[in-house]
């Protein structure tokens, strides 16, 4: 038992070091909500118009979108580690630009660089974490970066209360430096090294990651990785590889389904439109800012429950439970909103934040935390990066569409229809997991491919 625990320590250390980059990315995701009101004020050091402030926010999303494909390609060519080291460097340069900013154009450059960092990060980090972890803790390690992002958002909100705007910027820059040097000493992915015929380096990386495990076990794992790499040797036609087999098609369908449920069930849009939702629903139980902080805490708690459960209860159980409860929450909220806006009934004002809090907890418990695990587990080495690219592009597009459509639907046909759509998407996701997703806990990558190839799950 002692050797078993010792064999996990360095894997968790590498996972936490990689996830520290995600934490530092969480800072830039939440920073704008803290400072935009100040910058819209005429007395601000850089007074922004409403149009300029929208560019400061949206350029981060644009940067993420344009960097997904280059990030995935970079991971295939130079490995997983170098692109991940590039992320805190770009984030740090962004914070330097903001600290020195005297014109709005400097803010634009900063936010674009930070967006590029985020696009690379969320394409590459699930590959790295999934490939360094042993089978028995792959789910736990693979969810760490989502939890770190939630933690980064919370830290920014908390420190934003106690620090001046300038000191907050220096704090953010300091965390990028810490993240860079913490990850600098971590090994490259053993799977990537084996795929590039660098077997000795792959074994050396495994020896560090599995410290305390016997040499025989390490050699056995290296042979399994080598066999898996040889079976799915990188092809020049990645699209043919992804669409040519039942296993790959099923895997792509499951991952895209997860990306759609995660982004098009309101997980990002609800916080953004919290003021409008609370106004329409008649809820005065929480302020929009208070709701954002509460949701941050709830998501982090959901992750803390999910992380140790994913390798015990399994991926399938958490994902089906998550989508079912999230669908029920949206369906209930749609009924509430319909009654409130159509019949003007006097209703309990605590219902909207209560339903949405349950939704966010179960979203973080399953779909919100396990997308990265699925990206790595369901695809062989030759299509893993490209599958991550496709699903990330799909998720980013859905995020943009969901954000843009919420207000249009609310004004056009009624706010409750947004949540009817979200409920339907969650229930469809539930059916996809029930029908197509095999349980993958405790399986090697090779065994996962065999399970996926079966006609019925």
UniProtKB/TrEMBL annotation:
Gene Ontology CC annotation, any one: plasma membrane
Protein topology in the membrane: Multi-pass membrane protein
SUPFAM superfamilies the UniProt entry points to: MFS general substrate transporter (SSF103473)
Keywords: Cell membrane, Membrane, Sugar transport, Transmembrane, Transmembrane helix, Transport
Gene3D superfamilies found in the cross-reference section: MFS general substrate transporter like domains
Membrane-crossing segments per the record: 12-34, 54-75, 82-102, 108-129, 141-162, 168-186, 251-278, 290-310, 317-339, 351-374, 386-409, 415-436
Protein's UniProt keywords contain Transport: yes
Domain of life: Eukaryota
Residue ranges of domain Major facilitator superfamily (MFS) profile in the record: 1-441
Signal peptide boundaries: none
Subcellular location per the Swiss-Prot or TrEMBL entry: Cell membrane
Main location: membrane
Pfam families for this protein: Sugar_tr
Any one GO molecular function term: transmembrane transporter activity
InterPro entries for this protein: MFS_dom, MFS_sugar_transport-like, MFS_trans_sf, MFS_Trehalose_Transporter, Sugar_transporter_CS
Protein's name according to its UniProt entry: Major facilitator superfamily (MFS) profile domain-containing protein
Source species of the chain: Clastoptera arizonana (Arizona spittle bug)
């Amino acid at each position: 038992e002692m050797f078993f625990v010792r064999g996990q320590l360095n894997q968790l250390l590498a996972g936490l070091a990689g996830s520290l980059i995600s934490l530092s990315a969480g800072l830039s995701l939440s920073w704008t909500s803290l400072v935009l009101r100040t910058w819209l004020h005429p007395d601000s050091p850089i007074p922004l118009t409403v149009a300029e402030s929208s560019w400061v926010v949206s350029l981060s999303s644009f940067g993420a979108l344009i960097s997904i494909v280059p990030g995935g390609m970079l991971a295939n060519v130079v490995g997983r580690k170098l692109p991940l080291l590039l992320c805190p460097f770009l984030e740090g340069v962004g914070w330097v630009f903001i600290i020195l900013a005297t014109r709005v154009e400097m803010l634009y450059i900063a936010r674009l660089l930070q967006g590029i960092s985020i696009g690379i990060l969320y394409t590459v980090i699930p590959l790295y974490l999934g490939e360094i972890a042993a089978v028995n803790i792959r789910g736990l390690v693979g969810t760490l970066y989502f939890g770190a992002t939630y933690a980064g958002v919370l830290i920014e909100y908390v420190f934003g209360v106690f620090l001046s705007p300038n000191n907050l910027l220096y704090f953010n820059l300091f965390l990028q430096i810490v993240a860079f040097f913490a990850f600098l000493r971590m090994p490259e992915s053993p799977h990537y090294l084996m795929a590039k015929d660098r077997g000795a380096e792959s074994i050396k990386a495994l020896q560090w990651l599995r410290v305390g495990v016997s040499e025989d076990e390490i050699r056995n794992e290296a042979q399994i990785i080598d066999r898996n790499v040889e079976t799915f040797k990188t092809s020049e036609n990645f699209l043919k590889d992804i669409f040519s087999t039942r296993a790959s098609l099923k895997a792509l369908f499951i991952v895209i389904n997860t990306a759609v449920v995660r982004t098009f069930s309101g997980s990002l849009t609800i916080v953004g439109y919290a003021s409008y939702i609370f106004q329409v629903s008649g809820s005065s139980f929480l302020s929009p800012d208070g709701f954002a902080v509460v949701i941050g805490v709830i998501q982090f708690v959901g992750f803390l429950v999910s992380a140790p459960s994913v390798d015990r209860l399994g991926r399938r159980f958490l994902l089906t439970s998550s989508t079912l409860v999230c669908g029920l929450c949206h369906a209930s909220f749609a009924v509430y909103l319909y009654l409130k806006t159509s019949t003007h009934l006097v209703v309990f004002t605590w219902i909207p934040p209560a339903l949405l809090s349950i939704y966010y907890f179960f979203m973080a418990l399953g779909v919100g935390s396990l997308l990265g695990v699925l990206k790595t587990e369901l695809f062989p080495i030759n299509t893993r990066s490209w599958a991550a690219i496709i699903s990330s592009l799909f998720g980013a597009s859905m995020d943009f569409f969901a954000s843009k459509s919420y207000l249009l639907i609310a004004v056009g046909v009624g706010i409750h229809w947004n949540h009817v759509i979200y409920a339907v998407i969650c229930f469809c996701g539930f059916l996809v997991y029930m029908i197509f997703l095999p349980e993958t806990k405790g399986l090697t990558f090779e065994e996962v491919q065999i399970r996926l190839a079966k006609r019925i799950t």
